[in-house]
Amino acid sequence: MERIAEQIRKEASRLLDSGEVELVVGFKKGTIPMVNRPWFARTPEEAKEFHWDGFCNLNLVNYLTKRKGKVAVVAKGCDSRSLVLHFQEHQITRDQVVILGVPCHGMLDRRKLQRAAGKKEILDVAEKNGSVILRGKELELVLPREEALQHCCTICEHRNPVLADMVLAPEVEERKTDRFSDIAQIEAKEARERWNFFRKILSTCIRCYACRNACPHCYCPECFVDCSRPQWVGKSQDPDDVFTFHLFRAFHMAGRCTDCGSCERACPMGIPVRLLTRKLEKEIKERWGYEVGLSLEGIPPLATYRPDDPQDFIM
Amino acid sequence: MDAKMLPKADVSGFLGELRGKGYEIWGPVEVDGAVDTMPLDGTASPVTEYWNSRVSPKAMVFPQSERMFVFSVDRSRPDAFILKEVEEPCIGRLAFAIRPCDARAFGILDKVFLVQGAWQDPYYARKRESMVVMALGCNSPCTTCFCHWTGGGPFSREGVDIMMTDLGEGFLLEPVTDKGRELLQGIDLPGASPSNLEEAKGLQDAATAAMGEPLDPSHIRKRPLLEMFGDSYWERAHEACIKCGTCTYLCPTCSCFDIQDEVRGPCGVRGRNWDTCMFPLTTLHASGHNPRPTGKERFRQRFMHKLRYFLDDFGTIMCVGCGRCVQFCPVNIDIREIIRELRG
Questions:
Q1: Backbone CA torsion sign across B238, B324, A263, A131
Q2: Cβ-contact A50, A12 below 8 angstroms
Q3: Tell me: the pLDDT tens digits for A246-303?
Q4: B267 φ, ψ to 5°?
Q5: Would you call B235 an interface residue with chain A, using a CB distance cutoff of 8 Å?
Q6: Does residue A134 contact residue A112 with C-beta atoms inside 8 Å?
Q7: Does A226 sit within 8 Å of B280, measured CB to CB?
Q8: Which residues 88-117 of B have a C-beta within 8 angstroms of A?
Q9: What gap in Å lies between CA B65 and CA A238, rounded to an integer?
C-alpha cells in the first residue's frame, strides 16, 4: 500500500513539476479511520499528501465532469471504466486526462469492519499480508482481507484499469465471479413480495441524495428531483416519492453503471441501492452482452440504434 | 434525596408506566445493526450501549415531512382551495436515553423556532412545550465527539430534565429541572444511595477528563465578517465536498425547511420538508437567478451559518459537537478541521 502511495506521490509530483498537468486528483489520509478524502494537488508540494490504502473507495471520476484543462487522476479498475464512459459521453476528452492506473485488490467495507468490532470503536486499521488488523481501546482483531471487502469488490471482474497512461503497481489476477446470484433471488420472488422487499429497504431513505451525488455518472445539470417546473416528483417522505427517486435514478444508470459501489458506500442509512442498478446491469448484459466502460470502441446499447435491435419487450 | 435508581431489568416497566401517563416515548433503537432514534411503541426496546444514533432526535419536534394544511382541489366543493389547519393532538413526548449533545441541540432549535417576544412556530412549539428529555450521559465518548468545544460535555445538563448515568446494573436518574423532578416523584423507584451518587460522579468526571483540551470556536468571531466571507479559503475547502445532504439531514441543529403544496386526486396538502443549503434548489429564485450558484457558495453557507452568523445572532455556534457529520460524510469533510482553520 505504502509503495503504491509512494508511486502516486512520485508521478503526481513529476507531472505537476513538468507542467504536463495542472491538477492531480487522488486521495489524502482522512481525519478519521476508514474514510479518506479526495485530494486535489496543484503543486509538487501538495502532491506529498497523496495516500493509498484500502479505503480509497470513492470514484474520483466524479470530480472530472466538464473540467477544463489537463488533469491526472488515480484510477482503479472501476474508476477507469467510469473514465471510459465519461469519454464516450463527452464529459471530458481523452487528451485532457492522464490516467494513473492502480490495479486493485478490492476496497474495505467500513460497515463490515465495524460489525466485526462490535461495540468497540476502531481507532486504527492496518493491512498486512492479506489480513486486516483492527485496533482500538481493548480491541485487536485480525480478519482475512477477503472477508472485509466491500460487496462490489467481492464480485468485481475488472480489478485492473482497463485504460491507463501508466500503471503504478503490479497487475492483479482477474477472477470470474457470480455477479448476480442475489439479484436472481429477488427476481424469483412473487411481485407482491418484491414490492414489499423494496418498500422495506427504501423505508429508511432520508433523501439526502448522497447516492446520486457520489456517482460520477449522475451529472445532469439539473436532476429531475431538483426540477420545480414541472415538478416530476414530490419532495416529502411519502414512500411513493422516495421510491420514484430511486427507480428513476436506477433507470438513468441502465447501461451506464460500472458498479463502483460509490452510491451504496455514501448512503448514511446503509441502503443496498446497488440491488437496483445491478438488476439493470444484468438486463443489459443478457440482452446485449454489453459491459459498461471496457473499451473506448464499445457502443453503449441504450445510446445507439440498430434495425435488428431486440424488440420483444415491446408490448 | 430526589435521585432514583432504575435497574436495567425494569426499563421496560418504567417506560410502560410513563406510556400509561400519556407520554409518547422516543429513544435509540437498533435497526439492522445501526441505531436510530425512533418512537418506542412498546414492541421496540431501547438500546443504551451505543455511541449515538444515526438519525438525531430532532425529528421528535421537527419531522422530516410535516403536514401543515390540507385542502381540496375539487372545484364543485364550496371549500375548494381553502386551507384548513391539520389538527394534531397535543401529546407529551419523552426522549429516553438520548445523548446530552442532542439534548442541547433542542435549545439551539428553540432559538430558531421559538423566538422570545417575536413569534413562535406553532408546529414546533406544540411538540416541544410538553416535551421531557431524559439524557444518558456518555461514560465513554468516541473520538469524533467534540461536544466540549461547543460548550457541552459528555454529562452536560443543558436541555436535560433528567440525567441518566449508566452504573452497570442500573441507571442513576438525577432530576435537573422541576419537570424532571415531578416526573420522577410520581414513579415508584428506589432512591439512589450516596455511593450511587459518588460512583456516578466518578464516571462523569472521568468522561469529562477523557475529552481532552477543547478548542473554543467562538474565536471565529474575531475576524471581520466580510473578510471571512470573501476568503479564498473556500475555493479549496469545498473541493472534495459532493454537496449531498447527509451532514445537514443527520445534524441535530440544522433547521432549514421548504414548504410544498402537493396534490393527489382531489386532496391537497401544504407541508414542509427538511431542506439543505447543500442543494442548489434551496436558493433558486423564481426568476431563475441563484444567489448560491456553485458548490463553493453552498458549502460556505453551511459553515458560515453554523459557525459565524448563528454565533453573531445568538451568541452560540449552531453545533453541539455530536460528530455525526464527521462520521457519515462520504468524503471526510470534518467540521473540526474547518473550525480550526477558520480560527486562523
A1: positive
A2: yes
A3: 999 999 999 999 999 999 999 999 999 999 999 999 999 998 899 999 999 998 888 8
A4: -100, 130
A5: no
A6: no
A7: yes
A8: none
A9: 8
Is there a contact between B51 and A270 if contact means CB atoms under 8 Å apart? Answer: no
- Domain residue limits, chain A: 2-104+159-167, 110-146, 181-303
Joined together, the cell numbers standing for residue B191 give: 432512591
Q: Are B130 and B91 in contact (CB under 8 A)?
A: yes
ipTM, 2 dp: 0.95
Q: pTM here?
A: 0.95
Is A40 within 8 Å of B332 when comparing Cβ atoms?
Answer: no
Integer Cα distance of B157 and B174 in angstroms: 10
C-alpha cell at A56: 480509497
Contact A98, A21 (CB under 8 A): yes
Sign, CA torsion A112/A113/A115/A121: negative
The CA distance from B159 to A139, in Å, is 34
Q: For residue B45, which amino acid is it? A: S
Q: Is B185 on the interface with A (CB under 8 A)?
A: no
Convert the pLDDT of each residue in A88-103 to its tens digit: 999 999 999 999 999 9
Instruction: Name which of B158, B144, B151 is nearest B214 in CA terms.
Output: B151
Instruction: Mark which residues 12-31 of B lie under 8 Å from A by CB.
Output: 31
User: Which residues of chain A are within 8 Å of residue B276 when distances are taken between CB atoms?
Assistant: 208
What are the chain A neighbours of B329 within 8 Å (beta carbons)? 35
pLDDT(A60) > 60: yes
Instruction: Note whether B54 contacts A37, CB cutoff 8 Å.
Output: no
Residue B257 touches chain A, beta carbons under 8 Å: no
Alpha helices in A122-235 (DSSP H): 151-154, 181-187, 191-202, 210-213
Euclidean distance between the first and final Cα of chain A, in Å? 53
Contact A209 B279 (CB under 8 A): yes
